[in-house]
Automatic annotation (TrEMBL):
UniProt KW keywords: Transferase
Glycosyl transferase family domain residues: 141-265
Pfam family for this entry, one: Glycos_transf_1
InterPro entries in alphabetical order: Glyco_trans_1, Glyco_trans_4-like_N
Record protein name field: Glycosyl transferase family 1 domain-containing protein
């Protein structure tokens, strides 16, 4: 099968200059869909697939203002979307949202879950190497981990308020914890949310207890997951929540809120909580109360659950959609 993947950095003008009869492909797949940018072009003669990870800006418009230009692009994108052959999305929750907010019929939408790289399933064998890693990122002792962005839906303020309660509760048994927040956005200058996060860290008296190393390569990230006392996903809403599965694959107990697709990833394994500081705090305390045997059991369940999320399966499921829309019959 001949497939064409048009990346985000290929302009729409360049795409439209290529006549359909020159595009000798069976399927066009747009792996990126932006509501507020003109990223989608549909050739009527060629089956078109588009990936929509989530529609969070449509669920929470007050927190994601589109502006005049964004509103125009949203209108264009929505009209184009009506003519695509199939939509891929990451979860049942996102499928429901695409149907509700973008009015795509359910029969066009295929849930193709994301995968976990093999690197997260490997256990560090060299204790000294892990110690060097912790030194590189200025981590001392036990820590809780967050991996991701700083957008409103990530609820970083809620995480920080919960962490402040942990630090102030000397009887919790975990007041020694540090908070490590990984992601390039945390060290991006000029970002409004980052300024607010730094200001809140200062007001809560957490400057000596929060580490923000920025972008971390996968090998180091896997080791940081593995060394964490707990992984916390504080989001108000997610379209999938890949770090939750990465943490489980790495052998880390997880506290996760129940927003969007996150409840699909708990399977009774993660501590599923409400996305407010009290809920997040209670979830972390619950993990702290695990007996050694229960902690081992939760870790084992998480590792086994994460095995169903592989990039190979993602590729297989994606190819199945290609074949379906291109009317290729599997022998």
């Amino acid at each position: 099968m001949r497939a064409l993947e048009l990346q985000r950095d290929v302009s729409i003008i360049d795409q439209t200059r290529t006549p359909p009869d020159v595009l000798v492909v069976d399927v066009i797949h747009y792996p990126y869909f932006d509501l507020f940018q003109h990223t989608l072009m549909v050739h009527d003669e060629i089956p078109t697939v588009v990936t929509i990870h989530d529609v969070i800006p449509l669920r929470f418009p007050n927190h994601f203002p589109a502006g005049i230009r964004g509103t125009i692009y949203k209108w264009i994108q929505t009209r184009k979307l009506a003519h695509v052959t199939a939509v891929l999305t990451d979860s049942e929750s996102s499928k429901h949202d695409v149907m509700k907010y973008l009015h795509v019929p359910g029969y066009k939408i295929h849930v193709v879950r994301l995968g976990v790289s093999h690197g997260f399933t490997k256990r560090p064998s060299d204790k000294k190497a892990h110690e060097r890693l912790e030194k590189r990122y200025q981590i001392q002792g036990r820590y809780m981990l967050y991996v991701g962005d700083v957008n409103w839906n990530k609820n970083i303020p809620g995480l920080l308020h919960a962490f402040a309660r942990i630090k102030s509760n000397r009887h919790s048994g975990i007041s020694d914890l540090q908070l490590v927040m990984v992601g390039s956005a945390f060290v991006t200058p000029g970002v409004r949310e980052v300024k607010q996060i730094h200001a809140l860290i200062g007001r809560l008296g957490l400057r000596d207890h929060v580490r923000m190393p920025g972008f971390v390569h996968e090998a180091d990230l896997a080791a940081l997951y593995h060394g964490a006392f707990v992984y916390v996903q504080p989001s108000y809403y997610e379209g999938f929540g890949l770090p939750v599965v990465e943490a489980m694959a790495s052998g880390v107990p997880v506290v996760s809120t129940n927003g969007g697709s996150l409840s699909e990833l708990s399977e009774g394994i993660a501590e599923l909580v409400h996305p407010d500081p009290d809920g997040i705090y209670a979830g972390i305390l619950s993990v702290a109360s695990y007996s050694p045997s229960h902690r081992r059991s939760v870790i084992h369940q998480g590792i086994e659950f994460s095995k169903q999320f592989s990039w190979k399966q993602t590729a297989i499921d994606t190819l199945a959609v290609y074949k379906q829309v291109a009317h290729v019959i599997t022998p």
